[in-house]
């Protein structure tokens, strides 16, 4: 109850704030997840690309820490990637899966006990895709997903070939991009992609290790591309200094913490690889 009340207070005070840069439009996005018989409404941040012609669009899916930084502002990462996508010719939509459910973060919760499940996050992603497809100026044939960590795992879950909910979906993603997702569970389930996927990994990641994702890519075949950056840890595409998070109970060595932090070389290389993949996907849709 304390955690829930704190989350509600956080949401009330913090959600309208954004980091410096072009302010996005604050929108409500219906999830395919339901509460009391109605669609759960997600807070969204809409970064439309200026222009008259229909443009493709991408859903940005946050990690276990949520889409906000300290002080309650939409994170610099979300702003930076949305602006990069706009420059590349894409609309961008950030959705918050946590505060509508009374949560602030999942990182300190054990896997298997987390208050927001992968099923819920997948339904959020599906709802966001459906919202995008209905927007004026959006090319509904070219919709993608971009996620980090738990959000990257959501990308994989939303691309899972043969899943009944995904097969029945009105709107399906054309591709996905996942930064350092958790791949052990998909690997065990012999996951196969329903659309092209790019995974960007850190070889030294001791939170969501690279090896299961590399094995998943080998198992899945040509539809999955993978890049692994030598010596890079979880969160390598950020700018925060490397640190040990002892409050995270999961990871390669449960109970011993995990390393998180930026790597300038990996950040630059992954941005270039991301842009190249986006251009491939934009060309494939024409």
Automatic annotation (TrEMBL):
Keywords: Hydrolase, Signal
GO molecular function: hydrolase activity
InterPro entries referenced in this protein's UniProt entry, alphabetically: AB_hydrolase_fold, Dienelactn_hydro, FrsA_esterase
All copies of domain Dienelactone hydrolase, residue ranges: 49-240
NAD as UniProt keyword: no
PANTHER family referenced in this protein's UniProt entry, alphabetically: DIENELACTONE HYDROLASE DOMAIN-CONTAINING PROTEIN-RELATED (PTHR22946), POLYKETIDE TRANSFERASE AF380 (PTHR22946:SF9)
Signal peptide: 1-19
Protein name in the entry: Dienelactone hydrolase family protein
Source organism: Pseudaquabacterium terrae
Coiled coil: none
